[in-house]
Amino acid sequence: MSKGFDDIISKVSECSVKTVSVAVAEDSAVLEAVKAAKERNIANAILVGDEAKIREVASSINMDLSGFEIIHEPDMIAASLKAVSLAHEGKADMYMKGLIDTKNFLKSVLDKEVGLRTGSPLSHVCVFEVPGIEQLLFLTDVAFMTYPTLEDKVNIIKNTLPVTKACGINCPKIAPLAAVEVVNPKMPATVEASELTRMCAEGQITDCVIDGPLSLDLAIDPEAAKHKGATDRKIQGDADILLFPDIHAGNLVYKAIVHMVPGVKNGCILTGTKVPVILTSRSDTFETKVNSLALAAVVAEEMKKKA
Amino acid sequence: MSKGFDDIISKVSECSVKTVSVAVAEDSAVLEAVKAAKERNIANAILVGDEAKIREVASSINMDLSGFEIIHEPDMIAASLKAVSLAHEGKADMYMKGLIDTKNFLKSVLDKEVGLRTGSPLSHVCVFEVPGIEQLLFLTDVAFMTYPTLEDKVNIIKNTLPVTKACGINCPKIAPLAAVEVVNPKMPATVEASELTRMCAEGQITDCVIDGPLSLDLAIDPEAAKHKGATDRKIQGDADILLFPDIHAGNLVYKAIVHMVPGVKNGCILTGTKVPVILTSRSDTFETKVNSLALAAVVAEEMKKKA
User: Fold this and answer.
1) What does pTM read for this prediction?
2) Angstrom distance (rounded) from CA A137 to CA A8
3) H helices of chain A, where?
4) Strand, coil or helix: A125
5) Is the confidence at residue B1, as pLDDT, over 80?
6) Which of A250, B53, B126, B175 is least surrounded, with the fewest CB atoms within 10 Å of its CB?
């Protein structure tokens, strides 16, 4: 079982080499991540964008472009559609955002002809390696779906299962989180958490264990679970997937971890798509971008196995 | 300005010695905290409950009861009403929960004759000292108010201001948090955050600075604020009060900090009451209980000044 990004990166080395197509690649932070991904044998890249600008940016970061395919397309929208079509056609195994705004990037992802739709709504998963916590934590959704309904939460879970599987976890423990660990009819998040738990117990959701509502301490801290006497629960501090009630809760916890926990590592992808999509933000560190590429690579391998 | 619990505890030493009344005091964890509070000159205590049981528990933790007033009242409800009436009458400066369930404890707090009502709704504030973050962080509401309305949020702010003031912060910076830092009409939390910001700018809320909606990185990380170019904002990583959109977001962040950040210290009280109320939970550590008593003591001093 993978427990850290080192394990994910060594999993990558067991896969065939993957290729990422980059939409509007003339972005120094993105090219630096792509360069490192190539050097560390995480992935090759096809760079779609304005070739002159790509060469200029690459030169400014001392990046040797000789090992990369470049497709010249100076128009931003056309470049994103070209880049996504490479993933659509199977010429690339994952798709990454470059110097293009999120709205237009997502338009390319959702394009009916050359995009990456699967029929499932998109959701975001962020994988964390937290010092002191034994298992990897898969947080969802902290960035994309705003106020998921119960149906959306089922889809989020289904989108996340290939990601945990790709990281070596065959039957992940899923904690639908809330402020409390008992159902309170006045708190819809607890009712939905209970409903998801029932759906899993009755076989409507498979290949995982669901136990909620759960407070965060019971989900991630075995000592706290023991102290609270939660010995009858299926999850006792060993949750793999943390399912958040809404984007505010998810995003605030995500940022609390990133900005308060020393030595934390993370990587994120968008799922529910034909291939993993890497949608890093300006504020992500270089290592987070490289980790996201590694995560996408193992997920791409898992999706290929399944297809 | 206080920046850590050491500063809060040294502030306590500048105040007249405070007294806490404890409802149903026959609880070992509570007596241990009360014992330490006395030893560290944080507070004296009046122990209300079953005297024989109090003596038995005290003996089991090697606690010398000679310096404590004990009021014998074996009935739980009667004991809580006696203990709260001491605070109501000014014979105690703060009120603490012992071996009584939260529901009945709160009933005593809200009792119309001997309780601690002020006309304001109750809210909870949790003070954090986080390694690497320069200012103390005042998180509200992570435990009491479930889905605060805009009006509730105004009251939460008013309840929290005496707490920041007691810790030496005269004009705290308040960040109404959300997943994003721009108003999105589809996200009510961002609309309310913007409304609170306007109310403060127009003088409807005073003695503080409010800037929201704010994402957590912009609220607590000056580097992130600089990186995102948020130079026109009133808060740039230096927020004092973190105002959460609802209890799920607040509680999950609170527990993420407690269970993931090494070396963190915290203490919490209930506010909106005539005197500070200490409502620690089983899962709080010994140090958190003592910190909560220290926090309550400086807040009690501040409230006395104001009265």
Assistant:
1) 0.96
2) 13
3) 5-14, 28-39, 51-60, 76-88, 102-109, 150-166, 188-201, 216-220, 222-227, 247-260, 286-306
4) strand
5) no
6) B53
Q: Report the alpha-carbon distance of residue A283 to residue A29 in Å, rounded.
A: 10
Q: In Å, how far from its chain's centre is CA A162? A: 10
- CA B307 to CA B162: how far, in whole Å? 12
pLDDT at A45 over 80: yes
- Between helices B247-260 and A247-260, what is the axis angle to 10°? 20
Question: Position A175: which residue type?
Answer: A
The string of pLDDT tens digits covering residues A70-108 is 999 999 999 999 999 999 999 999 999 999 999 999 999
Residue pLDDT, tens place only, B210-255: 999 999 999 999 999 988 888 889 999 999 999 999 999 999 999 9
The answer to whether the beta carbons of residues A124 and A118 sit under 8 Å apart is no
d(CA A282, CA A262): 20
Contact residues on chain A for B261, CB-CB shorter than 8 A: 260-261
Q: Count A/B contacts: CB-CB distance under 8 Å.
A: 119
A250 min Cα distance to partner chain B (Å): 7
Task: Give Dmax (Cα) for chain B.
Answer: 63
- All residues of chain B having their beta carbon less than 8 Å from the beta carbon of residue A261 are 260-261
Residues of B in Cβ contact (< 8 Å) with A250: 179
Asked if the Cβ–Cβ distance from A258 to B133 is below 8 Å, we say no
Of A177, A244, A260, the CB nearest to B261: A260
Contacts of B238 in chain A (CB under 8 A): none
- Nearest CB to A259 within list B216, B249, B283: B216
Contact residues on chain A for B249, CB-CB shorter than 8 A: 246, 248-249, 252-253
Contact A117, A273 (CB under 8 A): yes
For A202, phi then psi, to 5°, come to: -95, 5
What is the reported pLDDT for A99? 94
Distance CA B74, CA B70 (A): 12
Tokens of A262: 């020393």
Distance from CA of B207 to the nearest CA of A (A): 26
For A292, the 3-state DSSP assignment is helix
Total residue length of chain B: 307
Contact B24, B99 (CB under 8 A): yes
Q: CB–CB of A54/A47 below 8 Å?
A: yes
Does B148 sit behind a cis peptide bond, omega within 30 degrees of 0 on the bond before it? no
Pick from A142, A217, A255: CB nearest B255: A217
The answer on pLDDT for A1 being more than 60 is no
The Cα A228–Cα A217 span in angstroms is 10
Partner residue opposite A249 with nearest CB, options B187, B249, B257: B249
Helix-, strand-, coil-residue percentages of chain B, each rounded to 5: 40, 20, 40
